[in-house]
Specification:
The protein is of the alpha+beta class. The protein contains 3 helices and 12 strands. It has a 3-stranded antiparallel beta sheet with strand order 1-7-8.
């Protein structure tokens, strides 16, 4: 609903300040969950949509995945190492299949390592109903000519399997690399 979408956005917008200006030094690993937790009302979270046991439910902190997903998509355009990333259990409507990054308790996180020779700074900007995450660092860490593509490989009555590929131009040759294989439950039961 419109109210639920607004709640998701407000949580992402408010929590983007927890990532704003974070500096990740060369060789350092960064955990998005550690930067955003605890998921409590005292820490600025409200109830938002969460997938629990194959159903769309509400929990404190639901909606923060829009922020981790935005950061993940920024990371896909760099040479930084994605150490840990999980898709949601069901498709989300705000990015193509396989391009999401779920955060849940202490068992789903988005972690990355700064494999460059210079610090990387995370900058978050909110404009209207949009949260943008930009990573600043050395030029060699960026992949400016990369194309990210999601392809549904299999779909049956219960699951969808999507593959994500990154295609970039290297020395005049297109190089296509498998980024991830993601499996989603198909149906959402609202309650």
């Amino acid at each position: 609903t419109g109210r639920r979408r607004k709640t998701f956005f407000e949580i992402s917008k408010r929590k983007s300040f927890d990532l704003q200006g974070k500096v990740i030094l060369p060789g350092e690993e960064f955990s998005v969950a550690a930067a955003l937790m605890p998921f409590t009302e005292e820490n600025g979270y409200a109830a938002g949509g969460t997938f629990i046991d194959g159903k769309l439910s509400e929990s404190i902190g639901g909606g923060v995945c829009q922020l981790s997903t935005t950061l993940y998509n920024a990371l896909l355009h760099t040479r930084l190492e994605i150490v840990e990333r999980y898709p949601h259990s069901m498709p989300v409507g705000y990015v193509p299949l396989g391009q999401d990054a779920a955060i849940a308790g202490d068992y789903k996180d988005l972690r990355f390592r700064n494999t460059s020779n210079a610090p990387v700074v995370v900058l978050c900007e909110t404009t209207g109903e949009r949260v943008t995450v930009t990573l600043y660092g050395e030029k060699e860490a960026a992949k400016p000519d990369i194309c990210i593509e999601s392809i549904v490989r299999e779909e049956n009555g219960e699951t969808i399997t999507a593959e994500v590929y990154a295609t970039e131009l290297r020395d005049g040759v297109k190089v296509r690399k498998l980024v991830s294989v993601n499996q989603y439950e198909k149906e959402i039961e609202l309650h």
